[in-house]
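Please go through the sequence line and C-alpha cell line underneath and see whether the fold suits the sequence. See right below:
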Amino acid sequence: MLPILSRARLAPFSSLPFSSPSSGLGTSLVQLRNVRYQAFDADLDPDDLAEARNWYASFTENSIPKGHTSYSRSSGPGGQYVNKTESKATTVWTIDELSNGLPKLLRSVLRTSRYYAKGNDSIIIQAQTQRSRSANTDENHRKLAEELQLMYREHVPAATSSDKRKKHEEIEKSFNEGRLKAKKYHSFKKASRKGAFLD
C-alpha cells in the first residue's frame, strides 16, 4: 500500500527554485530562452564569418596546397598492372601547411576531420583506384577539397536574411518588454504588501 503524503510535507509551488525569476535556475531559463531566439550566427565573430564566407566563395581545388605525396604498390582494381607498379598515392598535408590558407573558423576544426592523423598532426589521404600516379594524386586532392567544403557547411552558418534577422530582433524586443512588465508588476505587489503591513 502506498503511503499517503501529508500536506505539510509538500513544498508550495512558489517556494520551488524555478518559480522565482530571481533564482539561479530562473536566470538560466531566461538565458536559454534568449539563445532560443537568437540567429544561428549570433555568437560568432562577424569578421570571422566574413572571412570564412569570402574563402568559400572563391575556393577551388587549386586553392589546396600541394602537400607531400609518396607512392607504393597498389592492391586495388586493375588486374596485375596495379600490383607491379607503384601507383598508389598517399598525400600528407601538415595541419600548419593547411592552416595557412584557411579561415579561422575552419582552422579550429581541422583536427576533427576523418582524415586526421594524430601521430604526425597531419591530414593523410590515400587513393589507388586509378592506374596512374597522377590520377590517384588528383583524387587525393579532390577528396580533401570535398572534406573542406563539408567542414565549412557543418561549422559556418549561412548568412541570415534581413527578414529573418528582423524577426529575431522583434521576438527579442517583445520578450524583453514582457520581462520588464513582469518585473514592474512584482515590484508593485511587493510595495503594496509592504504598505498594507505598515498601515
